[in-house]
Amino acid sequence: MSAVCEGKKTFLSRLGFWGLALAAILIPTGLMAHAGAHGVVMDRMAIMITNGEARADIENMLFGDAAYDAERVKNLAGAIAEKAGEEMTKLFPEGTSHDPSLALPVIWDEWGAFEELAQELRRNARNLEVAADQQTMHGDGASQAQGADERNVQQAFEALAETCDSCHLKFREQL
Ligand code: HEC
Question: What is residue 68's DSSP assignment?
Answer without folding.
Answer: P
